[in-house]
Design goal:
The chain has one domain: Aldolase class I (TIM Barrel, Alpha-Beta Barrel). It is about 35% helix and about 15% strand. Strand 6, helix 5 and strand 7 form a beta-alpha-beta unit. The termini are far apart.
Length: about 350
């Protein structure tokens, strides 16, 4: 034969292997699929806002709303009926202050909502509370500020301990510190254990990048960072991979029960590296901007939004996620139930 070797490899001295044989029918494909997203993998992020009487749609997150406590409970019951095992809750307080005191107030919006949720759904849903100050501070940073305007690490970590106690007392199964302060996981574990909350788990936002993909989320929680600032002095630089592994190792050593990589799709290399390294469950957060992009292109008819959502979630799982926080949770659960 002339030219390059024939694609069939016939006569080339090795057995012919045709990879298309196992792709031939839907049943064959189902049988050999390595990765499947299931409802059991999904966690739905939800927003509860103080001082409103009707849910307020979030325009940059089509299909998502700021909920009242009442509509939040209905949403949680819908998740139970769809078989989604968990939600992660974010609060939008009526008033913000310099220290973010609404975050640890016993009557703060998330605490009130958590106890209502617990009463309504019992143990049928895992209640995860995002643990941060940015929704509660008037300057929009994830912690308390030092006189020079930078975020004071240790003063912030002290407040995170107080937030964890308030969330645990209100009924959180898991607290999820997202502020990227050094030592936050250890301090929260100590605070919880010291108050008898040794069964409350910690999901550490361990490798969390300073991403432009959080834009719609900031609309959802009414956060503007003072003076056009950003979070690059505490969240990770998207250029770096090694420090993600250092962050994860520290969080596990400090007592994290689960670790998270965030955002998801643009960080699959990080996710795969983390999943190969740790012996705790690994979560990935498909963030607001990732959701918004799929929704926007889907609405224009430029892509099939449902198919792309499932494809991206499958990729996130294939890269190593055991669970995925995603605004698609309810929708995809419906799709998977067919
Ligand atoms: C901080 C927090 C943020 C998100 C989750 N927790 C915002 C930020 O770090 O700026 C973003 C989630 C998303 O974009 O969907 N409380």
């Amino acid at each position: 034969m002339e030219g390059p070797r024939s694609w069939t490899a016939a006569g080339a001295g090795f057995p012919e292997r045709r990879l298309r044989r196992l792709r031939r029918t839907p049943a064959l494909r189902r049988l050999v699929a390595e990765t499947r997203v299931t409802v059991d993998d999904l966690v739905a992020p939800l927003f509860v806002r103080e001082g409103i009487s009707e849910p307020v749609p979030i325009s940059s997150l089509p299909g998502q709303s700021q909920q009242t406590v009442g509509s939040l409970v209905l949403e949680a019951k819908r998740l139970v009926s769809l078989g989604v095992p968990g939600l992660v809750l974010f609060g939008v307080p009526e008033r913000k202050d310099a220290r973010g005191s609404g975050a640890w107030d016993r009557d703060g919006i998330v605490q009130v909502a958590l106890s209502e949720l617990r009463n309504a759904v019992g143990d049928e849903l895992v209640l995860i509370a995002d643990l941060c100050l940015d929704e509660y501070t008037d300057h929009g940073h994830c912690g308390v500020l030092a006189p020079d305007g930078t975020v004071d690490n240790d003063a912030t970590v002290d407040r995170y301990g107080a937030v964890a106690l308030a969330q645990a007392a209100a009924g959180a199964d898991i607290v999820a510190p997202s502020g990227m302060m050094d030592g936050q996981v250890g301090a929260i574990r100590a605070a919880l254990d010291g108050a008898g909350h040794d069964q409350v788990a910690i999901l550490a936002y361990a490798a969390k990048y300073a991403s432009a993909l959080y834009g719609p989320f900031r609309d959802a929680v009414d956060v503007t960072i003072v003076g056009g600032g950003d979070r690059r002095a505490y969240q990770q630089d998207p250029a770096n991979r090694r420090e993600a592994l250092a962050e994860v190792a520290l969080d596990v050593a400090e007592g994290a029960d689960l670790v998270m990589v965030k955002p998801a799709l643009a960080y699959l290399d990080i996710l795969a590296a983390v999943a190969a390294t740790v012996d705790v469950p690994v979560a990935a957060y498909q963030v607001s901007g990732e959701y918004a992009m799929v929704k926007a292109a889907g609405e224009r008819g430029w892509i099939d939004g449902d198919a792309v959502a499932l494809e991206q979630l499958t990729a996130i799982k294939r890269a190593g996620a055991d669970l995925i926080l995603t605004y698609f949770a309810a929708e995809v659960a419906g799709q998977l139930h067919g």
